[in-house]
From TrEMBL:
<dbReference type="Pfam" id="PF04273">
    <property type="entry name" value="BLH_phosphatase"/>
</dbReference>
<dbReference type="InterPro" id="IPR015904">
    <property type="entry name" value="Sulphide_quinone_reductase"/>
</dbReference>
<dbReference type="InterPro" id="IPR023753">
    <property type="entry name" value="FAD/NAD-binding_dom"/>
</dbReference>
<dbReference type="InterPro" id="IPR005939">
    <property type="entry name" value="BLH_phosphatase-like"/>
</dbReference>
<dbReference type="Pfam" id="PF07992">
    <property type="entry name" value="Pyr_redox_2"/>
</dbReference>
<dbReference type="InterPro" id="IPR036188">
    <property type="entry name" value="FAD/NAD-bd_sf"/>
</dbReference>
<keyword id="KW-0285">Flavoprotein</keyword>
<dbReference type="InterPro" id="IPR029021">
    <property type="entry name" value="Prot-tyrosine_phosphatase-like"/>
</dbReference>
<keyword id="KW-0274">FAD</keyword>
<dbReference type="GO" id="GO:0070224">
    <property type="term" value="F:sulfide:quinone oxidoreductase activity"/>
</dbReference>
<feature type="domain" description="Beta-lactamase hydrolase-like protein phosphatase-like">
    <location>
        <begin position="3"/>
        <end position="108"/>
    </location>
</feature>
<dbReference type="GO" id="GO:0016787">
    <property type="term" value="F:hydrolase activity"/>
</dbReference>
<protein>
    <submittedName>
        <fullName>TIGR01244 family phosphatase</fullName>
    </submittedName>
</protein>
<keyword id="KW-0874">Quinone</keyword>
<dbReference type="GO" id="GO:0048038">
    <property type="term" value="F:quinone binding"/>
</dbReference>
<dbReference type="GO" id="GO:0071949">
    <property type="term" value="F:FAD binding"/>
</dbReference>
<keyword id="KW-0560">Oxidoreductase</keyword>
Length: 556
């Protein structure tokens, strides 16, 4: 980790982990400031995890979260209070260090010349010219705050964003495209279930973002603060503008760990784990291997969530290991689902129930995890009693796999692009925004009633690419997305129930039933998930090869 110096007292950096704290302590750091809200990234440890180790090393910790791109005067005042009152070196971190540097700039705006602020920040690798007017100066600062204009701007460098860029270039190679994403690492998140089951090593699910951005596409490594569709502009943190002719919105989904009381304080220890975070999936496998008896709980929060089958897949793979080790009879397995059914498409439920019976797992519907005490090994669930009254039940556990609540990112929910529930408001067939004709959206962030899966984004990207180009007059016909999603339900090591469906639960199998019968557990579906889908993702979908994903084109 590179720690960048802003003044004699303060250093800043991007996201740190507990393992970085020894180096900070060796540098004499006495105060640690976190300016990044928990749950922004799938590989992000919660601040409470870092704070525990920092306090062991004698540091005072300060949690001052700032929504990306939305640094307020109050945020700057809180930051300044710590700077002014703290004795000894201070280190602040966020996702990239940009928010910390912005706070430092605003905190020093009345006492330090603007040119010095901008120069110091630039030497540390942060561009503060975009907030010059706010800091309060009119000096000649060189380059302005508006970046280049693009034919297409794509917000989000995840599966949907990169696939759309590649599909656009495969059809029209001379487009001027930018992808905006602050992350350094790109993850193949469907692989984390296999990491938690001891099948994949975690590192095979991660690659550098730089290695995946398509040739000819500009990567703007920054966070989005807001949208200004009236001016065809995206506003980045630091108040810089990126202008577009057409916009694609695909930033993914936010994991809200704090929606469950006590969860953030105990994740990754005390038997509390989740396959929904890169660094925690290996802990799931560790717990599974070490559990020889006791109680194992698996939970599912309110919908929508990405990969709605993942909560129960964690249960099946765990049970399969315990079954084959001969210890399953010593373990009470319970599944607590906020929803009312095991799986939303009824055709696949009978096959899944066979495994529920095999593993003697108790299903509890209408139970929402609301609180957890890891040290005491207790979990609390909101439900209703026999008379329909709200009540809370308490359960002990030796291991618990938790799935966090999930929402659209903050900068989406507060934008003019969002519907009343906070999701990007699109036509479910064309994926075009309902109010802004030059905006499209795909992936987990938009409000079409499809399953939020990687397989859905694989089908959506070519639809968006075709329809965007049709709007430019460079393609004929409008493509329609049929709601396709796929959930390979891993019921045991070596067999999968391959659920494929579209809008309204319509079955949309990719193969004839004599090859893969999706309503039965099959070895071939397992091989598809283990051997074929990862290279299809890295070498196909992200490179614009639309294997088994060609859009159906209709009339204009």
């Amino acid at each position: 980790m590179e720690f960048k110096k802003l003044d004699g007292k303060l250093t800043v950096s991007g996201q740190i982990s507990a393992s970085d704290l020894d180096e900070l302590a060796a540098k004499g750091v006495k105060h640690l400031i976190c300016n990044r809200p928990d749950g922004e990234g799938s590989d992000q440890p919660n601040f409470s995890e870092i704070a525990r180790r920092a306090e062991e090393l004698g540091m005072t910790t300060h949690y001052l979260p700032v929504v990306s791109g939305s640094v307020t005067d109050e945020n700057a005042e809180d930051f300044a209070k710590v700077l002014n009152s703290a004795e000894g070196p201070i280190h602040a971190f966020c996702r990239s260090g940009m928010r910390c540097t912005t706070l430092w700039s605003l905190a020093n705006g009345k006492t330090m010349p603007l040119t010095e602020i901008v120069k110091t920040a630039k030497e540390a690798g942060y561009d503060m010219t975009g907030i010059a007017a706010r800091i309060g100066g009119s000096e000649n600062l060189g380059e302005g705050s508006s970046l280049a204009k693009y034919d297409v701007v794509i917000v989000g460098g995840g599966a949907g964003g990169i696939a759309t860029a590649s599909s656009l270039l495969a059809r029209q190679h001379n487009l001027n495209i930018a992808i905006i994403d602050p992350a350094d690492i790109h993850y193949y998140q469907p692989g984390w279930t296999f990491v938690g089951g001891g099948i994949f090593r975690p590192e095979v699910t991660a690659r550098t973002m730089a290695s995946l951005i398509p040739n000819g596409v500009d990567w703007i490594k920054a966070a989005v603060a807001a949208f200004d569709p009236s001016r065809n502009a995206v506003i980045l943190e630091g108040c810089r503008l990126v202008r577009y002719d057409r916009l694609v919105v695909a930033p993914g989904i936010k994991l809200n760990w704090d929606a469950i009381e006590g969860l953030s304080e105990t994740l990754g220890r005390n038997g509390v784990t989740s396959n929904y975070r890169y660094d925690l999936a290996p802990y799931t496998w560790e717990l599974v291997q070490n559990l020889k008896g006791g109680k194992a709980l698996f939970t599912q929060p309110p919908m929508p969530i990405k990969c709605a089958g993942a909560p129960q897949k964690a249960m099946y793979l765990s049970c399969d290991y315990w079954y084959k080790q001969g210890v399953l009879n010593n373990i009470d397995v319970e599944f607590y689902n906020t929803g009312a059914v095991l799986f939303g498409v009824e055709a696949y439920v009978p096959a899944l129930m066979e495994y529920v019976k095999k593993y003697n797992a108790q299903l509890n519907f209408g139970h929402q995890l609301t609180k957890i005490d890891g040290a005491a090994k207790r979990a609390w669930f909101a439900t209703k009693d026999a008379d329909g009254n709200d009540t809370t039940i308490e359960r002990e556990f030796d291991m618990i796999h938790v799935v966090p609540h999930q929402t659209a990112p903050d900068f989406i929910r507060s934008s003019p692009l969002a519907d009343a529930a906070g999701w990007v408001d699109v036509d479910q067939n064309t994926l075009r925004h309902k109010s802004f004709d030059n905006i499209w959206s795909l992936g987990d962030v938009m409000n079409a009633p499809n399953a939020k899966t990687m397989a859905a984004a694989r089908k959506q990207a070519p639809v968006v690419a075709n329809n965007l180009l049709a709007d430019m007059g460079k393609a004929k016909g409008i493509a329609h997305y049929d709601g396709y999603g796929s959930c390979p339900l891993t019921v045991e090591r070596g067999k999968i129930v391959l659920a494929e469906f579209g809008y309204g639960g319509k079955l949309l199998p990719s193969f004839p039933s004599w090859i893969i019968n999706g309503q039965k557990p099959t070895r071939l579906a397992w091989l598809l998930k283990e051997r074929f889908l990862p290279p299809l993702y890295w070498k196909g979908m992200l490179r614009g090869h639309e294997w088994m994903a060609k859009p159906v084109i209709g009339e204009d």
